[in-house]
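Practice problem 4.
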């Protein structure tokens, strides 16, 4: 017989002996401790997750409560107008029909009038002070000469900005942005502020801070021809609505406006009249359209006929009266 045919010695299975007595007690205690430890660990993790979630929610609620929401298009400009409906009136550079443009007397006249908006221009001196001035140079509206950007604020402040308009305004100064905002804050009027020239991030941040200090974040809209300036003000003051000023209309005006992050456009009446369908397209996108600078009833009527939302004018009192009469419901 071969060894391979011999049955091996069978192995006796080991029998697990249950602990007894003191050993059993210690075993039970160890198992209970392990279970308790695992349970506590699980509960601790669950509690930590819950606390973390609650902390995130609390922070989100706190931020939501502190950070004011953006002003809606309708809050600022009103509902979209249809053909024939009255547009809002913006006094161009203040009420320049009765006082020198972009000066405090012109601003006060606009505030005192029955108009919706005061429109002004702001630009920077060579040392970064924001002042009210339309032209790149000082020549037309002050006793100075040359580019504003080449003059310090002290130099600009020494100029006369009123005598050119009328001797009664001799000695009128070029106002600062702060002076304008302080005057606006005393009223309930809104403002459309055009940022002209080159703006730096520092100057834009200072502008945004001033709006906040005077509590005007929800009563001011900012407009510019320059995409970079619009981007800077969006970063510095995301709550403040922006308008793009367009010399020509892009092929897709709505897409361009969305890319710029603006609430609407400001353009000449000639540009808008060539493509009046753009108004309805912008309205459907929740945006508004204002036109400049219209100063007679023929142009005002054409603007209303195509449904613009706002008219910027040098004759705000006359336009307001004309609107009251021409858009009044029949008796």
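Answer key:
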């Amino acid at each position: 017989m071969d060894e391979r045919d011999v049955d091996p010695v069978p192995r006796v299975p080991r029998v697990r002996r249950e602990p007894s007595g003191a050993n059993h007690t210690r075993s039970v205690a160890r198992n209970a401790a392990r279970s308790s430890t695992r349970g506590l660990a699980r509960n601790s993790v669950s509690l930590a997750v819950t606390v973390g979630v609650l902390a995130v929610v609390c922070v989100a609620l706190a931020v939501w409560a502190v950070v004011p929401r953006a002003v809606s298009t309708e809050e600022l400009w009103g509902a979209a107008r249809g053909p024939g409906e009255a547009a809002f009136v913006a006094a161009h550079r203040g009420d320049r029909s009765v006082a020198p443009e972009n000066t405090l007397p012109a601003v006060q006249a606009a505030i005192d009038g029955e108009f919706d908006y005061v429109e002004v221009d702001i630009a920077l001196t060579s040392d970064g002070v924001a002042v009210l001035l339309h032209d790149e140079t000082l020549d037309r509206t002050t006793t100075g000469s040359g580019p504003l950007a080449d003059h310090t604020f002290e130099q600009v402040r020494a100029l006369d900005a009123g005598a050119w308009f009328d001797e009664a305004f001799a000695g009128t100064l070029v106002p600062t942005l702060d002076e304008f905002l302080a005057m606006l804050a005393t009223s309930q009027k809104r403002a459309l502020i055009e940022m002209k020239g080159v703006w730096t991030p520092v100057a834009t941040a200072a502008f945004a801070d001033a709006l906040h200090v005077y509590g005007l974040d929800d009563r001011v809209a900012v407009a510019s021809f320059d995409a970079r300036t619009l981007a800077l003000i969006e970063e510095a003051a995301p709550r403040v609505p922006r308008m793009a000023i367009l010399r020509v209309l892009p092929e897709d005006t709505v897409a361009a406006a969305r890319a710029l992050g603006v609430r609407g456009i400001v353009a000449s009446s000639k540009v808008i009249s060539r493509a009046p369908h753009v108004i309805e397209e912008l309205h459907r996108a929740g945006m508004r359209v204002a036109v400049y600078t219209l100063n007679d009833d023929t142009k005002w009527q054409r603007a209303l006929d195509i449904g613009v939302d706002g008219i910027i004018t040098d004759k705000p009192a006359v336009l307001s009266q004309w609107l009251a009469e021409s858009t009044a419901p029949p008796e």
